[in-house]
């Protein structure tokens, strides 16, 4: 496990875990003016669970696995917190004001609880278990307990396999439960397999985490501190989970990792296998037609993985490869460990192997010290590469990261102006990429019903949503579709007879 710099916790505490009892007692003392309700355990065989997910695909996967962990305890998912016996907010710490969004949501929870209990005698008032999970919980567990007495449980992304144990502590009378440790045991070894019913309900495309954590330590990023050091799951466990997904009707799997192409799992013989080796193994699963992976780092994009996009049919022609900036000075300040030139060289090798590949990227605008020339270099790179889609954001400080204390922080007005310029170009590129598919016939995986009656939404090999008039019986099938037109945002097509 990579060591975590002390400065990362300077804005919080020395240890969430060791101080949770003291924190809980302070919270209770401060809230004496209004007695805090204890969570209600209904004793029924079936209990209702609501999870709200913020952030990345890995959080979506984690949310699904939390549901799996609680299923043996009798919890079933519901669509609204006011129906729930337990509410989990699975949080993301990447973007600005992430924690404040959680406190706003908790304020709504407090109103919900007060409304349900209005005019009820004290002995009839109820409250769901309220838990904060994910990266905000990992980074700010003590502060959450201090500011939000309504919260009963806080746990990080590495400890949700212990949810039944944590619930047991609450049920036994413990007032607050905090677990933001990085446990020595592998959470994936402890989690129960997803039920077939849950897997079917999640659809024909699935996420599967194969790698967690990051050792790159970009100066703007909290991931090494909230998710820990790079860790790769074993080949056997990944294959087993993938086979279970396919048996339940999944046709497409997206492999997830904070730095997914740094994957280095072990096979049964103890040999280290890289991402291309894992994808080749997954390709042997009958019924698994499509494989994607995200998010990649340019430095880990080896030639074997690049060549696989040409040789393996199940490897989709889509790659998310963040660059963040087109300026070498800013890339160095970000500690990205690559240059503009090395990134473009990787792109050229990828396009040589798979000319039709759709490329997406990430961009951070207004990083400390970014000059007009630095921004122009980013715009030049975007025009040189051309993207099918991209994610772009204004830089925002993350407490505890090196960039948060850098000099020459950029005025928000400048960041806003630059971001608008960049997004205008990126949106134009995305629209042009979509226009280039009009008139082509593509294999479309039908995933779900559309908003209109008789409409299905499918996914192209390039990750584009495609709208087609078709019966629901076709969900889960991959069929040739002629792309007829592009509206404001969506492509429309018809099934080829």
Automatic annotation (TrEMBL):
It comes from OCS116 cluster bacterium. Catalyzes the methylthiolation of N6-(dimethylallyl)adenosine (i(6)A), leading to the formation of 2-methylthio-N6-(dimethylallyl)adenosine (ms(2)i(6)A) at position 37 in tRNAs that read codons beginning with uridine. GO terms for cellular component: cytosol. Residues 47-172 form the MTTase N-terminal domain. Keywords: 4Fe-4S, Cytoplasm, Iron, Iron-sulfur, Metal-binding, S-adenosyl-L-methionine, Transferase, tRNA processing. [4Fe-4S] cluster 2 binds at residues 214, 218, 221. Residues 435-497 form the TRAM domain. The lineage of its organism: Bacteria, Pseudomonadati, Pseudomonadota, Alphaproteobacteria, OCS116 cluster. InterPro entries: Elp3/MiaA/NifB-like_rSAM, Methylthiotransferase, Methylthiotransferase_CS, Methylthiotransferase_N, Methylthiotransferase_N_sf, MiaB_methiolase, rSAM, rSAM_horseshoe. Belongs to the methylthiotransferase family. MiaB subfamily. The gene is miaB. It is found in: Cytoplasm. Gene3D superfamilies: Methylthiotransferase, N-terminal domain, tm_1862 like domain. Its cofactor is [4Fe-4S] cluster. CDD domains: Radical_SAM. Its EC number is 2.8.4.3. GO terms for molecular function: 4 iron, 4 sulfur cluster binding; metal ion binding; tRNA-2-methylthio-N(6)-dimethylallyladenosine(37) synthase activity. Monomer. It catalyses: N(6)-dimethylallyladenosine(37) in tRNA + (sulfur carrier)-SH + AH2 + 2 S-adenosyl-L-methionine = 2-methylsulfanyl-N(6)-dimethylallyladenosine(37) in tRNA + (sulfur carrier)-H + 5'-deoxyadenosine + L-methionine + A + S-adenosyl-L-homocysteine + 2 H(+). This is tRNA-2-methylthio-N(6)-dimethylallyladenosine synthase. SUPFAM superfamilies: Radical SAM enzymes. It is an enzyme of class 2 (transferase). [4Fe-4S] cluster 1 binds at residues 56, 92, 135. SMART domains: Elp3. Residues 200-432 form the Radical SAM core domain.
């Amino acid at each position: 496990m990579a060591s975590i710099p002390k400065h990362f916790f300077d804005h919080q505490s020395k240890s969430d875990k060791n101080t949770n009892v003291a924190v809980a007692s302070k919270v209770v003392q401060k809230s004496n003016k209004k007695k805090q309700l204890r969570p209600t355990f209904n004793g029924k065989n079936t209990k209702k669970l609501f999870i709200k997910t913020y952030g990345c695909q890995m959080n979506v996967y984690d949310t699904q696995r939390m549901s799996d962990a609680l299923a043996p305890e009798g919890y079933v998912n519901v669509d609204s917190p006011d129906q729930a016996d337990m509410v989990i907010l699975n949080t993301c710490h990447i973007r600005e004001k992430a924690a404040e969004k959680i406190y706003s949501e908790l304020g709504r929870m407090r109103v919900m609880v007060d409304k349900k209990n209005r005019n009820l005698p004290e002995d009839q008032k109820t409250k769901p278990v309220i838990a904060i999970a994910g990266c905000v919980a990992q980074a700010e567990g003590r502060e959450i307990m201090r500011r939000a007495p309504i919260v009963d449980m806080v746990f990080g992304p590495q400890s949700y396999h212990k949810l039944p144990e944590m619930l047991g502590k609450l049920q036994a009378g413990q007032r607050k439960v905090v677990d933001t440790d990085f446990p020595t045991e592998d959470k994936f070894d402890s989690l129960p397999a997803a039920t077939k019913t849950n897997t079917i309900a999640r659809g024909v495309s699935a996420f599967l985490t194969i790698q967690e954590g990051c050792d790159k330590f970009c100066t703007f990023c909290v991931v090494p501190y909230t998710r820990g050091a790079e860790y790769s799951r074993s080949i056997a466990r990944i294959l087993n989970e993938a086979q279970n997904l396919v048996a339940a009707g999944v046709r497409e799997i997206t492999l997830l990792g904070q730095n997914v192409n740094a994957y280095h799992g072990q096979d049964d013989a103890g040999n280290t296998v890289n991402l291309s080796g894992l994808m080749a193994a997954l390709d042997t699963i009958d019924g698994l037609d499509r494989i994607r992976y995200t998010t990649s780092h340019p430095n880990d994009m080896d030639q074997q993985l690049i060549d696989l996009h040409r040789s393996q049919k199940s490897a989709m022609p889509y790659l998310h490869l963040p660059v963040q900036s087109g300026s070498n000075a800013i890339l160095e300040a970000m500690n990205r460990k690559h240059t503009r030139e090395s990134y473009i060289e990787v792109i050229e090798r990828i396009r040589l192997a798979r000319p039709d590949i759709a490329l997406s990227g990430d961009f951070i605008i207004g990083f400390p010290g970014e000059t007009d020339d630095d921004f122009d270099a980013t715009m030049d790179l975007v025009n040189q590469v051309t993207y099918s889609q991209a994610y772009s954001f204004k830089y925002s400080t993350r407490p505890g990261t090196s960039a948060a204390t850098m000099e020459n922080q950029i005025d928000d007005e400048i960041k806003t102006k630059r971001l608008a310029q960049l997004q205008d170009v990126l949106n134009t590129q995305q629209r042009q990429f979509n226009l280039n598919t009009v008139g082509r016939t593509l294999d479309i995986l039908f995933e779900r019903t559309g908003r209109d009656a008789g409409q299905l939404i499918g996914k192209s090999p390039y990750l584009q949503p495609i709208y087609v008039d078709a019966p629901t019986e076709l969900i889960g099938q991959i069929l040739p579709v002629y792309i007829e037109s592009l509206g404001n945002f969506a492509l429309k097509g018809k099934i080829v007879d």
